């Protein structure tokens, strides 16, 4: 790994590695990776979710380099990031990921590689292609890339209008092995996209999953199909998902109504250009009277507050991901004929809402899960063009991934949390310094401190 790292770092001055140079780098027998162990799947039995500690379940281990199959690539991972699926994996909720690996392993001889007693997690990366398998023509060793996390087989016709509908659709690094929180990752070639040249490795690794998810959920015709002038309610508007939704709304001419939980998070939304901001803690919204009973009076108070920001209009689109805690309010405040898009349930999966406000007002609920390759490519293109910016707030070393996941689990973070894999320090990997200078304030918006 040292030779690979040194060659990539040396290319900072000489330009990207050539295919010949990258292809000549010897692959190691093993590399470092953040893993879960099958033997630990019951370690948190009987413990409340909030008390489960990713630092106890995530381990840094040396693992063998996986066999490279057709249509695949091995990538030297310079940086990765932590998503909520990292947290879910680490606390074995809602299911142990080893069940995903077992099911995948039964689908083919090649997929058997993924069914191991350890799971290398992580669904983002920025790095350099080292090797490509048979049938890969668009990517070559030496290419500087980011990867999105959609793994598909496309042997069924179901996925050929929208690859997210492929029956064998999986999230890489969550439902497959050999993920991005490692020094080497195994991906399918149709996960690869060009690394934005004005970003460092850790900045380029941060948008991947959440940026693509927000794009499909809010912008794509497979999601809400947002248009100019739409009032968009964004829960957790300064968080990993919401911060991209806020940017897409502003860039697309919509009016984001940003819901946050502190003045610090409100300030971040203001720095992105948002003006309509609700601090739900400061204003004391409690949508549940107790664990079983919601409070419609709070929905109405919330709706009245929203209309103060919209000139009396109701919400066109709700960008939902908290789930159980907020879903009843989301359905209520949406305008007649409006849309609630949901991609997650971080506060609970069993949603409850008053269906009268849905059917009688012809509202729609759309389930949205990650993004297809085209949507991910478009979302990455907007990053590369400097229209949308990373929301990286803090960066950890690979051996500190447990702490990084712990912080995300406790919501003790802003935006996205990055992880350095082969990159020895932050700020490396920038190719286009002129474009970076144009956008440096926006790139560093979520960081504490000065420009880098």
Features:
452 residues; alpha/beta; 15 helices; 29% helix; 21% strand
Give a concise summary.
With 452 residues, the chain is of the alpha/beta class. The protein contains 15 helices and 18 strands.
Rg is 22 Å
Percent helix among the residues?
25-40%
Overall geometry comes to globular
Helix tally?
15
**How many E-type strands?**
18
Strand content: 15-25%
User: Distance between termini?
Assistant: 27 Å
Output the structural class.
alpha/beta
Low-confidence stretches: none
Biggest sheet layout? 7 strands, mixed
Integer average pLDDT: 96
Account of the 3D structure:
The protein has 452 residues and is α/β, with parallel strands linked by helices. The protein has helices spanning 2-14, 19-24, 54-57, 84-90, 97-105, 201-205, 208-219, 242-251, 263-272, 296-309, 327-333, 356-359, 373-384, 401-409, 433-443; strands spanning 30-37, 59-64, 72-82, 118-120, 125-132, 144-147, 150-151, 170-171, 184-188, 192-194, 231-235, 255-260, 276-279, 315-320, 334-342, 364-367, 392-397, 416-420. The strands form 4 sheets. Strands 3, 5, 6, 9, 10, 17 and 18 form a 7-stranded mixed β-sheet that branches. Strands 13-12-11-14-15-16 form a 6-stranded parallel β-sheet. Helix 4 (84-90) packs across helix 14, helix 7 crosses helix 8 (242-251) and helix 10 crosses helix 11. The radius of gyration is 22 Å and the shape is globular. The two termini are 27 Å apart. The model has no long low-confidence stretch (mean pLDDT 96).
Secondary structure blueprint with pairings:
Elements: H1 2-14, H2 19-24, E1 30-37, H3 54-57, E2 59-64, E3 72-82, H4 84-90, H5 97-105, E4 118-120, E5 125-132, E6 144-147, E7 150-151, E8 170-171, E9 184-188, E10 192-194, H6 201-205, H7 208-219, E11 231-235, H8 242-251, E12 255-260, H9 263-272, E13 276-279, H10 296-309, E14 315-320, H11 327-333, E15 334-342, H12 356-359, E16 364-367, H13 373-384, E17 392-397, H14 401-409, E18 416-420, H15 433-443
Helix pairs in contact: 4-14, 7-8, 7-13, 10-11
């Amino acid at each position: 790994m040292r030779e690979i790292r040194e060659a990539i770092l040396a290319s900072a001055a000489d330009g990207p590695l050539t295919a010949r140079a990258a292809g000549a780098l010897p692959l190691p027998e093993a590399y470092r990776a953040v893993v879960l162990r099958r033997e630990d799947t019951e370690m948190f039995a009987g413990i409340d979710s909030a008390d489960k500690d990713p630092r106890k379940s995530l381990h840094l281990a040396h693992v063998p380099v996986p066999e490279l199959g057709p249509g695949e690539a091995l990538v030297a991972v310079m940086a990765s990031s932590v998503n909520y699926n990292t947290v879910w994996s680490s606390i074995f909720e809602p299911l142990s990921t080893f069940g995903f690996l077992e099911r995948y392993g039964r689908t083919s001889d090649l997929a058997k590689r993924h069914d191991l007693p350890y799971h290398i997690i992580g669904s983002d990366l920025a790095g350099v292609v080292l090797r490509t398998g048979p049938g890969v023509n668009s990517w070559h060793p030496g290419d500087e890339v980011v990867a999105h996390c959609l793994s598909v087989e496309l042997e069924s016709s179901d996925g050929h209008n929208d690859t997210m509908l492929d029956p064998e659709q999986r999230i890489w690094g969550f439902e497959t092995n050999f993920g991005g929180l490692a020094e080497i990752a195994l991906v399918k070639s149709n996960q690869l996209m060009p690394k934005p040249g004005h970003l460092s490795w850790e900045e380029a690794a941060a948008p991947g999953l959440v940026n693509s998810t927000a794009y499909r959920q809010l912008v794509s015709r497979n999601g809400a199909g947002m248009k100019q002038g739409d009032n968009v309610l964004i829960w957790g508007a300064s968080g990993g998902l919401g911060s991209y939704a806020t940017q897409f709304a502003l860039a697309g001419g919509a009016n984001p109504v940003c819901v946050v939980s502190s003045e610090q998070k409100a300030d971040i939304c203001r720095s992105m250009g948002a003006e309509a901001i609700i601090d739900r803690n400061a204003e004391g919204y409690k949508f549940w009277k107790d664990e079983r009973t919601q409070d419609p009076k709070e929905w109405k108070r919330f709706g009245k507050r929203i209309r103060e920001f919209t000139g009396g209009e109701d919400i066109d689109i709700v960008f939902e991901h908290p789930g159980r805690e907020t879903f009843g309010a989301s359905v209520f405040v949406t305008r007649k004929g409006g849309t609630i898009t949901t991609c997650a349930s971080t506060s609970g999966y069993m949603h409850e809402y008053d269906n009268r406000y849905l059917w009688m007002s012809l509202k729609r609920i759309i389930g949205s899960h990650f993004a297809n390759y085209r949507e991910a490519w478009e979302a990455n293109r907007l990053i590369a063009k400097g229209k949308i910016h990373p929301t990286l707030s803090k960066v950890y070393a690979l051996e500190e991934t447990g702490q990084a996941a712990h912080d995300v689990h406790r919501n003790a973070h802003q935006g996205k949390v990055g992880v350095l894999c082969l990159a020895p320090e932050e700020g490396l990997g920038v190719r286009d310094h002129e474009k970076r200078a144009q956008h440096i304030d926006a790139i560093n918006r979520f960081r504490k401190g000065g420009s880098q």
